[in-house]
Structure formats: structure tokens, C-alpha cells
Amino acid sequence: MNASFSLSIPTLLGGLELAKSAPGWTFLWGTLAGGVLLSMIASCMGVIGSRSRLSSYMLAQIAFGTKGSLLLNLGFGLSLLGWFGVNIELCSDTGMKLLHEIGVDAPEWLLKLSAGCTMTATTLVGLKAINRLAMIVTPLLGMTILLMLVKLNGAGSIVSILNRGSGTALGLGGVMSAIVGTAVVGAVIMPDTCRFIKGSRGAICVAIIAFLIASTAVTLVGGLAGLATGQLDILALMLALGLGAGAFAIVFGGSWTLNALNLYSATLSVGAAAPNWPRRLVVLLCGAGGTLFAFLHILDFFIPFLIYLAVIFVPVGGIIIVDFFLLRQADYLGESYQNKSYWHWRALASWAAGTGVAVLAMQGIFTLTGTAAIDAILTAALVHGLFGWTRSNSSKEAQT
Length: 400
Known about the structure:
78% of the residues lie in helices and 0% in strands. With 400 residues, the protein is mostly helical.
């Protein structure tokens, strides 16, 4: 299930945008390095889930406190609504171009509103509707990726294709941060599925397949196909593959499925902060908020959006990993997790420190490694580990 999310229009779009924004070889190595970092985070989180048998929501409550975890859930919800807006704008932009090709003019706001209402209505029906839609769309997306591979096969060697990349907006660190941002939320919530897996090895295999193999492969295929055809727009690329009007069906269907799932997950996160609100009301409010993001033209800031997602949510993984493996694993095992505090200020301070250092790196003011995402997780992990070490020493001194 985790790997299937990689067969998505946003993953292909991410590959196209990065291939357009970075030199070809930088795009390649940055994508591979970002995939390695993502799989490492996902592996650790998956192992935690398989050992503790707890969901990501419960893990966040232990690490950040019952009240502190609400901030995290609201942040997850906001990021998912951002993705909702990206997909709506992608659909409306594709629809506008196709309508223009056949001589029909339609207001952009109407297409965005229609897409938002359709995707929200699907989420209101529930997971059954989302699953049925995914069974139709996912194979079509898989066929599209295979077509791109065929196109690559006749477009020259990989070396010659990579040499066509001439973007200068992003360096290696920027590409890595964008790759991490594409799927960091999925990596952090790996315990939600891996808690049902017996043994750490199985969880690690799932993480590697989903993030290092599937996601990386789709991103590279999208970017390389764009460079090979000279089409760095998702619709133009699909038309160049000979999909014709079916291109819109694939873009809209893929975005529709993923957005319904994004909205479903967002309502779970927001619902955790407002447990007494009716589910339908939460879905409608989140759908309206996500549609509003589309009207704010969030697609124009797609790469910065991905990078900021990385610096906000990567520290969360570092904190939970250090907390579980080095500081207080017993709190995550057995029944002791029921005794939780409202706020864990050390974890919240570590989160803020990791995010702050990453922002400084993005602004070119200060960096530890040259990559904002790595700066974020290292800083959060080190600060949280230091807090835990000083607390442990203080407790020992008090006992003596």
C-alpha cells in the first residue's frame, strides 16, 4: 500500500520540476540521496511501529505529550491540505489547457471549485469509494510510467539525457530537501501500517521498497522522460507520449484518488484536535480549506512547498527515533504508554531547534551539512538527545 502512493501524479510532477530546476546530474544524485535519507527515516519509524504496535498518533502523544501532539497533528493536517490544493490546481490547469485546445473557454475558478467539490464528496462517502477509484486509476498510472520508460529507451543513453538538464535554481542539497519533502509525512507515519508487521526486517523491507525503490524510480522516470522529450509540463509530456485526451483522465483520476486520501487523512488529524466535531463537518471544512489553497496558486510554489515540508516534519522523525532507541523505550512498550504527560517541552523545543537551523540553512545564513533536511533531523535528534542525557544525569545526582 505504501509503494502504491508513489504511482502518483505529484511524484511524476516532482520529478519534472526538479529536472527543470537543477542540472541533470545534480537531479540524479540528489534524487538518489534523498531516497536513501527517506528510506532510513521510514525504516526507523517502521521498526518503532512494529515493536511498539502503536500508531503514529500514539507515538506522537508519548514523545510530545497529549496536548503537544495536537500541534503535530494540526501540522500534518495543514500539509495534507496543501497537497490537496496542489492537486486541484494541477487538475484545473490541465483542464484549462485541454479546453483551450478544442476552442472552449471556461473560467478557471469554476474548474477549481468543481474539482474541490468532487474530491470532497468522494471523501464524504468514505474509504470504500476511495479504494474503488484507486483500483481503476492506479493501473493507468502504472501504464503511463511504463510508456515513459519506453520513450526513454529510444531517446538515447541516460548520460546524454542527463546532460540535457540545464537548470540552475537548485543545488544538490535543494534537490535532496525537495525529495524528502515529497514523502516525509508518509515516512513519519510509517508506524500506522508497520505496526501490523511481525519483526523489524519486514518493516525495513517495506520502507526500502516504498521510498528508496518505488518513489525514487517514479521521480527519476518522470524527470528523465521530461528531459528526453523536452516537455517539462505534465500535460505536454503525456500528450507527447501519445495519450491524447486520455491524458486529462489520467491526471484528473490520479489527482482525484490521491486527494480523496489526502483529505481523509487530514480529517483524521484535524479531528484529533476537535474530537467532538461531527466527521462530515470536519470533512467539509477541510475540503473548503484545501480548495482555498488552490485559489492561492500553491502550484506556483511547488518546490519551496516541498522543501518547507521537509524542514518542518523531518525533525519529528529524529525526535521519536532518539526517544525510542536511546532515551525511554520502555514508555513505548507494554501498557506504560497510557501514562502520558500533557506537554513534553523538551521534544517541542527540539522540534523548534531543528526547524530553526534548517530555515537558516535555506536562507544561506548557517548550515551544518549543506542540506536543510539533514540539518533539521540532525539538530532535532542531537538537541533531544542532549536534553535526555542531562535529565538522566540530574536524576542520578538526585538519587545519590
